[in-house]
Amino acid sequence: MSLQLRVYVPEHPLIKHWLAVARDINTPSVLFKSAMTELGRWLSYEAVRTWLPLMDAKVQTPLAECDATFVNPEVPVAVVPILRAGLALLDGAHNILPVASIYHLGLVRNESTLEVSCYLNKLPDRFLPETRILILEPMLATGGSIMMAMKEIASRGVASENIRIVSIVAAPPALQKLSEIYPHLQIYTAIIDEGINDKGYIIPGLGDAGDRAFGT
Ligand SMILES: O=P(O)(O)OC[C@H]1O[C@H](OP(=O)(O)OP(=O)(O)O)[C@H](O)[C@@H]1O
Ligand SMILES: O=c1cc[nH]c(=O)[nH]1
Ligand SMILES: [Mg+2]
User: Fold this and answer.
1) Which atom of ligand 1 is closest in space to residue 143's alpha carbon?
2) Where is the Phosphoribosyltransferase domain (predicted)?
């Protein structure tokens, strides 16, 4: 597979640990949800590292004035969780980006055909072009869901350079589709797995992320 897009798998002990917890079939739903929250937190932390716009300023400490650097409050930051499973990453992501706006996008695969349909779209009509958008999509499998999400977001005026994806398990078919259309997109994932089975599940993956996070 030739990949032009940039896929980052951060070498971080907490990411490895929570991925192992999430993968384990014996992990109960309540702990699975915690693992997803932690993965959402640490992968979002890595994803915003070179992406949040900064602003130089001066601050007065109790003792003296000094140079300071803030996150520029004039550049909007948005988080788009792909329901349902993306909701499980939201607490962690929102924890490090507390002023971000949250725009929910509800997508579901037909379990037989794997066709994706949209049942909830709370995206605005347009984003300001400089808006930084973090998409939370834990499973990149066939790529049908993330391609629909990217199309909806990009058509609202944001270049793919300003979009980053946080995923937990990414599979080659989804990465291939993304790279063909969005070569400058950056993806932060806990692991790249070997492939998908004939039912569209990632192998070894972690099973159905939505069902496991919500106990259904
Ligand atoms: O790359 P794809 O083949 O499109 O698969 C990925 C999608 O599959 C799951 O959603 P699902 O349809 O199971 O909905 P859920 O999150 O509500 O469980 C997962 O949460 C992703 O959104
Ligand atoms: O393995 C997979 C693939 C798609 N969606 C999931 O929740 N798990
Ligand atoms: Mg599901």
Assistant:
1) 1
2) 9-216
